Amino acid sequence: MTGTAAGHGPAEETAPAAAEAVSPAPAGVSRRGLLGLALGAGAAGLAIGAGAGAATAAAIGRAQQAETAASAYDFFGTHQAGITTPVQDHLHFASFDMMARTDRDDLMSLLQDWSYAASRMTQGLDVSATGAVGGSPEAPPDDTGEAQGLAASGLTITFGFGPTLFENDEGDRYGIATQRPAQLQKLPAFLGDDLDPEHSGGDLCIQACADDPQVAVHAIRNLSRIAFGRARLRWSQLGFGRTSRTTASQSTPRNLFGFKDGTANILATDDAALDENVWVAASDDPAWMAGGSYLVARKIAMLIETWDRVRLTEQEAIIGRDKGPGAPLSGGDEFTEPDFDAKAKDGTPAIPVMSHVRLAHPDFNDGIQILRRGYNFVDGNNELGRLDAGLFFLSYQRAPEQFVTLQRSLSTDAMNEYLRHVGSGIWAIPAGAAQGSYVGAALFS
Questions:
Q1: Contact residues for 242 (Cβ-Cβ < 8 A; gap 6+)
Q2: Strand partners, 206
Q3: How far apart are CA 90 and CA 212, in angstroms?
Q4: Cα separation, 283 vs 122, whole angstroms
């Protein structure tokens, strides 16, 4: 999971798009959305540990709060936030299915309501003007309130459309089947898949990333409430500790195997690489996806206890990098380009042919790159008393075939012995919304 195929995403454009006006969103939440706010339904908020009594710790806390308060990303823009945005520390990802007997108007109003609420929450505001405490004391509040007093904390909210939104066993529910991108298909089976259907797929997805876990959870909790009667939560995943970087100023993080991850990830400043590998072009089909991308999510369980008993030299050979500084085994430092022709003292390749770094490298995949934006997860322990932990892999690419090609290349990866793919999903990520409009509006125009 080190290198191109295992990383994260850069910092994205947030300037409002000069897009044509399309079906403007209402200036607030629709009646269905308000009903969802009133009746509630959603996830419980995470409590954040408080802390330190020392004056120095308090001073550090105040400095960090001031820094995160300044981290507010505009919801509106050419591309959706949360793709090339500097990767935040925490994730709450959620997949939704539309409810039975919903129609096209229900879907459109849901996207409008979600966009309105997201545009406020990303600025550190409640989901509506009345919010958590400004409404009638005799009615449930619009906002659940656990984010009161917290900064925006770099919150980004990214929406996506799954294959089943366009057509499922019930047919073309929303009159959009003809607009389905040809490549938006359920991913093929891969070696090592042990997928849980209850933790895979979904009509819609929301990726909420923030530097404060409570802010991310608050976003998903309130968007779930707004969806009441129109969409239901299918599955969700909490993540912590980014496993890649999207800006040169960010240090390369480590995954739960202890190795630096995402060294070779595409950076937000590399416009040429983004245009070639991440953003859907105006010349691509369908036209409504221009400026968007495709998201693949994979829940990858790591066999932590087994890995922890592997000798250090073997771990490094499996990954293809030095565990300390993160340099390729061919020499240099972390950012030295791997030399796959270099030989070890015994004459064998310095970077083993089945190492993750080699198999994931663009040189062996027709130059393919993807933008990775994954997170670590620990979901307690399993029935055997072992850590239920691993990588929640997120990648953005211009076409799903890029991911499929890379994943097939990794079929002989020596690291597969220590991994199980237990969840999976793919979604079309529309372009960013223009001010006064909503995400996905071009699909309905």
A1: 8, 87, 88, 89, 253, 373, 374, 375
A2: 94, 159
A3: 7
A4: 31
pLDDT of residue 13: 37
pLDDT tens digit sequence for 227-274: 999 999 999 999 999 988 898 889 889 999 999 988 788 999 999 999
Residues 310 and 293: their CA atoms lie apart, in Å, by: 38
- Residue 59 and residue 127: Cα distance in Å, rounded? 31
- Both tokens of 62, joined, read 């105040």
Alpha helices for 151-194 (secondary structure H): 163-166
CB 229 within 8 A of CB 99: yes
For the stretch 358-399, pLDDT in tens is 999 999 999 999 999 999 999 999 888 999 999 999 999 999
Beta strands (DSSP E) in 169-214 are 204-210
Q: How many CA atoms lie within 13 A of 434 on its CB side?
A: 11
3-state secondary structure of 124: coil
For 53, 91, 197, 418, the CA distances from 390, given in Å and listed in that order, are 33, 14, 18, 10
Whether the link from the prior residue into 286 is cis, omega within 30° of 0, is yes
User: Residue ranges of the chain with pLDDT lower than 70?
Assistant: 1-27, 29, 31-70
| pLDDT of 277 | 97
CA distance linking residue 290 with residue 279, whole number of Å: 8
pLDDT tens profile 159-169: 999 999 999 99
Outline where DSSP puts E strands in 65-144. 90-98
Which positions ≥6 away from 426 have C-beta within 8 Å?
A: 162, 163, 184, 185, 186, 187, 294, 295, 296, 297, 400
DSSP 300: E
Q: What is the pLDDT of residue 264?
A: 82
Count Cβ atoms below 10 Å from residue 152 Cβ, excluding itself.
22
Q: Which two tokens stand for residue 403?
A: 């991911």
Q: Looking at the DSSP assignment, which residues form a beta bridge with residue 293?
A: 429
Other Cβ atoms within 10 Å of 68 Cβ, number:
22
Q: Where are the beta strands (DSSP E) in 317-412?
A: 371-372, 375-381, 387-397
